[in-house]
Amino acid sequence: MTRPLTISFFGSSLVSAFWNGAATYYRGVIRALAARGHRVTFYEPDAYERQRHRDIPDPDWCRVVVYAPTAADLDRCLDEGARADLVVKASGVGVLDRELEAGVLAHRRPGTLVAFWDVDAPATLERVEGDARDPFRALIPRYDVVFTYGGGPPVVRAYEALGARRCAPVYNALDPTTHHPAPPRKDWAADLSLLANRLPDRERRVDEFFARAAALAPDRAFLLGGAGWEDKPLPVNVRKVGHVYTRDHNAFNCSARAVLNVARDSMARAGWSPATRVFEAAGAGACLITDAWEGLDDFLAPGREVLVARDGEEVARHLRDLSNADAAAIGAAARARVLAEHTYDHRAREVERVLEGGGEGWRRSA
User: Fold this and answer.
1) Which of residues 22 and 361 earns the better pLDDT score?
2) Which of 204, 223, 270, 347 has the greatest CB tally within 10 Å of its CB?
3) Per-residue pLDDT tens over the stretch 177-223
């Protein structure tokens, strides 16, 4: 960028990953932007007990403002945030989302850019395309740019068809200062581990790729981390460890022979949607097994940097065939690839290019 920007970012939570899978994505992008000279304020609601389950204190690279989940306190923050060069409204804040979607535009000041940052674009598009009366539909053309967590060309085309001035994917990535190899923990030792919160549009795929694999490999040890699984019936060779704080993700990823990624339904259908966990595991040098989705080979090479499975039977087969040496080699290759091409510094540079209009001549409309 020609000059540093002030940025107001309205999202679910920067300081807590409790029922908030986007936390490490927010941290990675914002920390990288801050390292490049931009000054960011993150506005998050006091909701869903996230402040009671903080992973990090307020960081020195971002100002954090926690507001009461009321219209009055939100309006105060919108008025303050509108003084920035760039105002961002992220999807899925979970509190007063519709008010935020309209409010960042209503409070816009001359010369300010306003962006919508969609951290679940396939689901948002399914909702909007299925309901012509959805209030967000009319707002899309009024945003200066739509950033998305993923989705690739299909998501870009869909947003542009809805009138978006510009749509640009900013994929998950690695922050090597926070996710890296770590000593394993004996209590988390397993043949295959999965870290995922229990969500309706993920559970069916977890049943297939994780629970069914465990049933087909009764001699292997499986470990499940994440919130919401307490009452879920699972095979006897699966241990549940509940919510895993982000400070423990490295140890979690380094304690099993392989780590499983399971995409949510909408992201698997859209493709080009690597989850945060993909880059966390690769950054830790873990051997990753992922469900199959289009666009994967833009990020990691199947068979060399990641193992791909189309169902639970293939997951179980990978575990039977995977030696410790092969697992280590795949993990090392994945780590080298993401360090070279997929860090949050790479993503921050992409954001700057979009804001500058790099490559496609985008400029803010009057």
Assistant:
1) 22
2) 270
3) 999 999 999 999 999 999 999 989 899 999 999 999 999 999 999 99
| Residue of 53, 60, 55 whose CA lies nearest to 42 | 60
Q: What is the pLDDT of residue 270?
A: 84
| The one-letter amino acid at 120 | D
Based on the fold, state whether residues 82 and 143 are members of the same structural domain: yes
Q: Name the domain count of the chain.
A: 2
User: Measured between alpha carbons, how far is 51 from 18 in angstroms, rounded to an integer?
Assistant: 9
Tokens of 227: 């919130």
Please name which of 148, 170, 172, 169 lies closest in space to residue 261, comparing C-alpha atoms: 172
Residue 278, both tokens: 């993909």
Q: Which residue, 253, 292, 257, 243, is CA-closest to 276?
A: 253
Residue 275: give the domain boundaries: 186-341
Q: Is residue 179 part of a domain?
A: no
Residue 361 domain flag: no
Cα angle 81-12-37, degrees, rounded to a multiple of 5:
50
Say whether both 246 and 150 belong to one domain: no
Is the pLDDT reported for residue 124 higher than 80? yes
Compare 306 and 361 and report the one with higher pLDDT: 306
Tokens 């869909």 -> residue: 158
- The verdict on 31 and 82 lying in the same domain is yes
DSSP string covering 263-314: --HHHHHH-----HHHHHHHHTT--EEEE--TTGGGTS-BTTTBEEESSHHH
DSSP characters for 230-273?
TT----TTEEEEE---GGGHHHHHHSEEEEEE---HHHHHH---
Report the C-alpha gap between 142 and 163 in whole angstroms. 9
Tokens found for residue 178: 């926070």
Return the closest-CA partner of residue 305 out of 323, 273, 283, 272. Answer: 283
Q: Tokens at residue 165, please?
A: 């001035």
| Alpha helix stretches (DSSP H) within the chain | 23-35, 71-81, 97-106, 121-129, 135-139, 152-161, 200-206, 212-216, 249-254, 265-270, 276-283, 312-321, 324-341, 344-356
Q: Is the pLDDT of residue 341 over 50?
A: yes
204 and 147 assigned to the same domain: no
17 plus 156 within the same structural domain: yes
